[in-house]
Amino acid sequence: MAGFFKRGVSLLALSAAAVLVPAVAGQAAAVTPPPGATVPMTPCKATKGLGGLCGRLNVPLDYAHPEQGTITVAFIWFPRGDRSRPSLGTLVPNDGGPGQSTASDPIGWYKLFGSVLKRYDLLLIDDRGRGSSSVIDCPATQHGTGDYFAGIAACGAQLGAAADKYGTAAVADDADAIRAALGIDKITYYGLSYGGVDVEAYATRHGEHLAAVVGDAPWTSLVDPMQREIAPATVRDVVRSCSYAPGCSARNPKPYATLRWLAQRLARKPLVGTGIDFAGKPYKVRLDEASMMNRLAHNSSGWGGDYLARTGGGFATAGELTAAARALKRGDRRPLLRLAAEQLSGYSFPGDTGPATEFSQGAYFATFCTDSLALYDTTAPVDVRRAQYEAALDAMPKDTFAPFSVRGYEKFLREALYAADACIYWPAPRKDVLAADASYPSVPALILNGDLDATDPSEYSVDYTKRWPRGQFVEVAGAGHGVLLWSSCAKRIIRRFLLTHHAGDTSCAKVPVPLFATADFPLRVADAVPGTLPPGSHASRLARKAATVAAATVIDAFKRARMGGAPIDDKALRGGTFEVKAKKGSQTLVARLNGARFAKDLQVTGGARWTAKGRLNARVTVAGKVDGRLWISGPLLVTTDDMLTVSGTLDGQRIKVRVPAT
């Protein structure tokens, strides 16, 4: 959605991903409610042939004051796929937000958990105020119209006395009420992102009914109000996404210093100019420090990873940011202007977040503002809150969010995560999520985080793990936000844990998920790094550099297709065009380049194919600084050490070199 990162990952697009095949089929046979259920349930169309039963339960709006009325909470229950064997329990996932519907895409959950759902019943609950559970729809905040702060205040006023009734403490009580109404003794909770708050709220209130826990990049209500760990985590995104690719790391030996220079440069003087967006159209760019953090560096919620078989461009912007910054430092603005145009075109703050039933921005504020710690007294009048907030920021040392400025970081939080000062204008005070004198039950608890997750950094997960007596933390190298979506390794670990309550061998998590990373933006062929000659081979240094540029031109086309989505018809970095389409019925991408120029003095024309298994093959002609025909082949995004072979003839001389696939 334009305008912000949700602390969760929508499954709506996931259900269409051909790479993920449901492991549970034929589930549409007659289904009966679980034994002991006391709430009416009926077959529902939303289950799309999976045989789920839909139900609704009226629960108190305020559990402390049930006389104040009720609210309806909706859920879907699915029986396990293999009813010939005993059930391993009931799995209750939550994909965060807050504000996101958990039950809107059952197929997505089946694809994620696969064969686990042969042994587990599945219970999908739309938290109060979201999806089908008395959804909160505040037009101004939902569609990004009018003044941002006025919209938040109006949303709170729309809820009136109920403005503080949508906190996660109430959500936990709702979940337990549904559990009891279904006659279920214990549940296994999977909390993705802000779903981690749902898990901790339930654990400290109803821990006796918890069998096990999986926290996937879990957010926590105990995070400091300015979420300061996000600043170093965003730096890690940039540094590690380059360091994991040998070609990028070799050309960018000091990525932190480069990012610091860029942040300071943009804070002092925003970059203004025209770049080319994913549609090949010119876009007027104004890139300041906050928008650089938001749209270019902090992209760990983007699709990516081996689990989605190279179907997304996650970290592609972070992976080329240092190279683009180095180009800017040399006076070459084009790479950064293009990157900014691609990410800022179509972006707005506040943004239109679409139908409230899919993601409710009103529910986001109603929950987040009720749950979260603040820099100010949430019981004070708005003007006092604002004064306390500003005073707290002014008192912070300049390097609090280094390498970013205090005010630049604050603006980023507001625009990227709808945090910072947003809740100043929410009319109700906060409430504690954790039960008083909270203790966490001694149940198996697996907590995972991607080491490139800047949305919910690993620091949060490490602290979260310590609260569970039997907690185990696994960090997944090269993964972003929500490791179940990023890594086949993480998927295996999570599924094994759900089936056995043991994570088992987690060594695969130390092998980085391969990511796009751009080593350099040579202005001319002479500026490129020459390809490596195999033993006994000979070629001029110029020819070897041209081979590097030709390969980079082809890779750049596929990278843009993954970042912007295929099909794509775009202009190449320094002239010419390319188009990339998906082969019908396949994840193979087919590209056509027409005079595409990654460097000013080399045109590349021809065709290329990148298969679903990661094999790249291209036949191109090159013209300009050198002329000839080249064949480019090898793995792309299969491992972090991928190398391509470039062979053919340049200026009448045979050439064969190897170049990093970055």
Description:
Strand 10 and strand 11 form a beta hairpin. The chain has helices at residues 106-113, 139-143, 148-159, 168-181, 195-206, 230-243, 246-251, 255-268, 289-297, 316-329, 334-344, 361-371, 382-394, 406-417, 458-466, 483-486, 488-500, 541-564; strands spanning 7-8, 41-43, 53-60, 70-78, 89-94, 96-97, 120-125, 187-192, 210-216, 271-276, 282-287, 445-450, 471-476, 568-571, 577-582, 589-596, 602-610, 615-624, 628-635, 643-650, 653-660. Helix 6 packs across helix 10 (316-329), helix 8 (255-268) packs across helix 9 (289-297) and helix 10 packs antiparallel against helix 11 (334-344). It is of the alpha+beta class and 662 residues long. Helices cover 31% and strands 20% of the residues. The protein has a nine-stranded mixed beta sheet, sandwiched between helices. Strands 14-15-16-17-18-19-20-21 form an eight-stranded antiparallel beta sheet, with helices on one face. It has two domains: 1-521, Alpha/Beta hydrolase fold, catalytic domain (Rossmann fold); 525-660, no CATH class. It is built from 18 helices and 21 strands. 57% of the residues are buried.
**What is the helix content?**
25-40%
CATH class of the largest domain: Alpha Beta
* Count of separate DSSP helical elements: 18
CATH architecture of the largest domain: 3-Layer(aba) Sandwich
What is the gyration radius calculated from CA atoms?
Answer: 26 Å
The overall strand count is 21
CATH topology name of the largest domain, in short, is Rossmann fold
What is the approximate shape? globular
Uncertain runs: 1-5, 11-28, 301-312
What oligomeric arrangement do these chains adopt?
single chain
Distance between the termini: 28 Å
Binned strand content: 15-25%
Largest sheet: 9 strands, mixed
> What is the name of the CATH superfamily of the largest domain?
Alpha/Beta hydrolase fold, catalytic domain
Task: Count structural domains.
Answer: 2
Q: What structural category arises from helix and sheet content? A: alpha+beta
Let me know the average pLDDT: 91
Strand order of the largest sheet: 2-3-4-7-5-8-9-12-13
